[in-house]
Amino acid sequence: MKIFTDAPEGMTVVQNAFIDRFMPHANGEFVKVYLYLLRCADTGQELSLASIADVFDHTEKDVRRALSYWEKQQLLKLKLSPEDVIVSATFLTPPSEERAADVRPDSDSPKKQAKAAKMSDETALHEDKPSSAAKIQMPSRARVKEFSSQEEIRQLFFVAEQYLKHTLSSAEQSDLIYYYDTLHFSPDLIEYLIEYCVSKDSTSRHYMRKVALGWAEAGVSTVAQAKHDTNLYNKNYYAVLNAFGIKGRAPAEPEQEKMARWFGEFGFSIDLVLEACKRTIRSTHQPSFEYADSILTSWHELGVKSMEDIVLLDAQHKQKQKKPADKQTAPAAFNRFNNFYQRKYDYSQLEKKLLKPTNNTT
């Protein structure tokens, strides 16, 4: 990917309009990608989505979302190949104040922001094309500074550093304040969020934010509700592993994604999911999340809601496969094996003749 800008060589110029009007409303990770591209512009360095993702420990889809976001803000112009690969990105002059207002993210409610972010993440899982960025309005630097002076927030930062075993970066501090100020999580709930992610060996900002947005969308506002939510899912996940005969390990991330879809998007009960697992083992003789997913996807498309619906589907399937009972046997074809006269014998009389003693004459 090539990058073009009109800035003088040997320096990275960030326009005041970007800092004043665009940076405060953007996701911090998107800002970092923008500044990194600006730094690499006109250096002759060949960049790819993968190389940028490696720099920030992101995925390629994260980079795509950042580029798409800045294109939507009219600060970048992307050039795509026929295979939908980004081959160049050109920096544009920031639009006027009036035009910027048309594309600036609205100050949505926490629930709307959570839903938008979740939809963006789900789209990224199933599409290779860049998707529009979630409208997450991260706190400004001034807002972070304001909250960081509060004793409650300083204590929260301290607890987070104990769990994460490192000093919080400014981006991580911004995330915690976002949970506190925008999602309206209490410090106790944020502390449990960190504890939960650490227990899952997933302390990346992306994963933690994903969990937080999921709780916000589900209306979770207390530690008790969060524990109920996570325990319910954990219980269901391990029930599925047990049905597959998998023991001694936690579900892998791709397995978690599938199960989250079964219980969340599809809304299936644990009974329906376990029934799909049983049928998977019966058909494949081994655990297969892909096979179970195909069964459950089919049930979802057919509108299955209960075990009674499954019984009805099974009955309909058997009816289609059942052969008509009154089917008559076709007459034997005329060939050299049955073209002679068929004799009729009285087998009882033949038996008497065979058993009757004979008189031997000399």
CATH architecture group name of the largest domain: Orthogonal Bundle
Q: What is the percentage of strand-forming residues?
A: under 5%
Give the distance, in angstroms, between the N- and C-terminal Cα atoms.
Answer: 118 Å
| Order of adjacent strands in the largest pleated sheet | 1-3-2
Q: What structural class results from the helix and strand content?
A: mainly alpha
The share of residues in helices is: 55-70%
Write down the CATH class of the largest domain: Mainly Alpha
Enumerate the spans where pLDDT stays under 50 for 5 or more consecutive residues.
98-109, 118-135
CATH topology tier name of the largest domain: Arc Repressor Mutant, subunit A
Shape: elongated
How many strands appear in the DSSP assignment? 3
Estimate the mean pLDDT confidence.
76
Radius of gyration, Cα only, in angstroms?
A: 34 Å
Order of helices and strands: EHHHHEEHHHHHHHHHHHHH
Please outline the major beta sheet.
Answer: 3 strands, mixed
The figure for the number of domains is: 3
Number of helices: 17
Q: What does the model show?
A:
The protein has 362 residues and is mainly alpha-helical. The protein has three domains: 2-101, Arc Repressor Mutant, subunit A (Orthogonal Bundle); 141-221; 242-319, no CATH class. 59% of the residues lie in helices and 4% in strands. The chain is built from 17 helices and three strands. A hairpin with a 5-residue loop joins β2 (76-80) and β3 (86-91). α6 crosses α11 and α12 (223-243) packs parallel to α14. The longest helix is centred in the middle third of the chain and has 21 residues, at 223-243. The chain is elongated and about 125 Å long. Mean pLDDT is 76; it is low at 98-109 and 118-135.
